[in-house]
Write a structure and sequence with these properties.
The structure is a single chain. By secondary structure, this protein is an all-beta fold. The protein is 0% helix and 52% strand. It has no helices and 11 strands. The strands form 2 sheets. Strands 2, 4, 5, 6, 9, 10 and 11 form a 7-stranded mixed beta sheet that branches. A 4-stranded antiparallel beta sheet has the order 1-3-8-7, with no helix packed on it. A hairpin with a 6-residue loop joins strand 9 and strand 10. The radius of gyration is 13 Å and the shape is globular. The termini are far apart.
């Protein structure tokens, strides 16, 4: 049974930083593209960042140069370092595992990030 468990969300002031973590189990971690997506009520879920098991990263345009994704293949974890946070970053952040080849992808339950003074 695949599980993706997010942690690290919370309330932070504008300009602050926060690190999200996702622990994966039940899958061959290095066979998956790991990523973070976010969603606000009434809007579609959007890409934040993904990272291939080999280290190649891709970022959504609104977070580029502020967020950093990194993964630890030995610990089956993926992290999102969020810097220079702005109120528009407020959303529920979801961890995602997508196979490099054909197959089912998986989602975590999400963690709330609120940027507010």
């Amino acid at each position: 049974q695949v599980q993706l468990v997010e942690s690290g969300g919370g309330l932070v002031q504008p300009g602050g930083s926060l690190r999200l973590s996702c622990a994966a189990s039940g899958l061959k971690f290095t066979s998956y593209l790991m990523g973070w997506y976010r969603q606000v009520p009434g809007k579609e879920r959007e890409l934040v960042a993904t990272m291939h098991s080999g280290g190649f990263a891709n970022y959504g345009g609104s977070v580029k140069d502020r967020f950093i994704i990194f993964r630890d293949n030995a610990k089956n974890t993926v992290h999102l370092q969020m810097n220079s946070l702005i109120p528009e970053d407020t959303a529920v952040y979801y961890c995602n595992a997508q196979p490099h080849t054909i197959g089912e992808d998986y989602w975590g339950h999400g963690t709330q990030v609120t940027v507010s003074s």
